[in-house]
User: What shape does this take?
Amino acid sequence: MKFKKMPENKYAFQTVGQALKNIRKIFKDKGIMNPDREAEILLSYFLEMSSSEIYLNSDRILKDIEKTQLEKKIHKRIEKIPLQYITKHQEFMGMDFLVEKGVLIPRPETEILVEEVIRKLKNYKCSRVADLGTGTGIIAVSIAKFIEDVIIYATDISKKSLQIALKNAQKHGCKNKIIFLQGDLFEPFIGIIKKNSLDGIISNPPYIDSHDFESLGLTVWIIIVK
Assistant: This one.
């Protein structure tokens, strides 16, 4: 009688706690920044547990299918696929945003700049602003959440980006404060918005080659307030 060979556990972990420890080491050895945090995020996403639940369930034995699927996620990350594209989520300004491959990932340090944008818009009492190249919609949604009386015109040339941005706006309950328009930069405004009717224009344009983003670590902003 032939027995079916069990799948090999490439990374040699059996429990949740062992998985967390091993993933941390793997990420560290592969030169991934913030290996401890990324390991925790990946495992939390995969097991649908909070960080605290991971530690509380550290002795739970992982099923063979769980180990196999988790190994695939680990392999994707060490192949330099961004963690956000694996989990399809990114935390920003204390909110959870949906991200997908093909849409630029919001960088954590951008929060500082968004906070400054919100401060300026409040000081100038801006009620109609444009977010050019909205991407995942993090800027538009953040403004909508932190400024009460505001209408945001969010544009993007990518239909997929606008679909993701709309989902994020719906998720955070501010869809009625954001008008999504498809087109390049100011192009969607032609015939829709009158000249000088905007109080502010915000943009984080991806004018640097996409292959250079990971190595440069740059975040570039244009902030214009009337």
